[in-house]
# Entry
Amino acid sequence: MAASARRLEDPPGSAFLLAALGAHAAARFAERIAALDVTPAQTGLLRAIAATPGQSQQVLAQLLGTPPSRLVGLVDSLADRGLVERRRNPTDRRLHALHLTADGATLVERIETIGREHDDAILRSLKDSERARLRSLLARIAEDQGLTPGVHPSYRRL
Amino acid sequence: MAASARRLEDPPGSAFLLAALGAHAAARFAERIAALDVTPAQTGLLRAIAATPGQSQQVLAQLLGTPPSRLVGLVDSLADRGLVERRRNPTDRRLHALHLTADGATLVERIETIGREHDDAILRSLKDSERARLRSLLARIAEDQGLTPGVHPSYRRL
DNA sequence: AATAACGATTACAATCCTGAACGGTTCACC
DNA sequence: GGTGAACCGTTCAGGATTGTAATCGTTATT
# Structure
């Protein structure tokens, strides 16, 4: 009989801590933005459209790493609420260029505010210098792991 | 027209980085253990049983933060493969005490090995001293945020 | 002009989770 | 001691989400 009897409390590794904390942060953020009646997926799409307006759904789907069919429902839900517009491209009428409406733009602003509050809530136990250190470490891992900056990997196959 | 035009690349905050990296780490881990034909949820349950054997499903459900009905299927899938045993408690025949079989124990060992490899893969861009620093920062946040150590929050309402 | 390629959409099936209801068992209390 | 409440595990139906493949309209190719 080997020693085993590993306790549940000793964490199995930093990567697990990372995953657990990431899920926690994501869940908390989802709670916050629920007040605005948006889901994390919608938020990511709004952010992407705000960053590069006028793109086709195809391009956007590739950027986010999601099947195009999934974008349809997402865009629908935002378009129905008047936050996003599908503008047909006159020269190529297959394309739907996505743009934010005025309402959509102000919503993105609110989301960014909530994001900053969320950030503070999650990191409240760290001093500013420690926050900077953490951010730098995380950024290095993210780059090494090939994450596209500003895009949440959950669009891919989750 | 305000300045806006935030680029997608500048990350919206460390909490977002955390969430993105956590999702990435979780997805990669899921890929690894898929070779053993287990899901992350099953892995967490196996770990919990290994840490505190003989517990009832009710207690386990509360520890993991999941509705008991969700445990049933999880335990079923592991029991069908002979990794976990449900033992009726003779003094209180309502309870099902959960234990690992020999196969289950060796599987947990393999999962721990994979976990260490996974850890190295995620953190490969960091020196040992930096890994220690990161771990300490993450642990502090996790404690401050009230995460139960060793338990992945995704069992709760995801 | 015919056919292939392409963007967006729809249809469909598969998966997973939640919440309530259900049998079997034990406990509390009169 | 017997009756009803509480409890454990299970089951069941409903809802939400996602990926694959077929479909429709439009454009490019030859």
User: Anything to note?
Assistant: The helical segments of chain B are 14-34, 40-51, 57-64, 68-80, 102-122, 128-144. DSSP finds six helices and two strands in chain B. Residues 14-34 of chain B form the longest helix (21 residues).
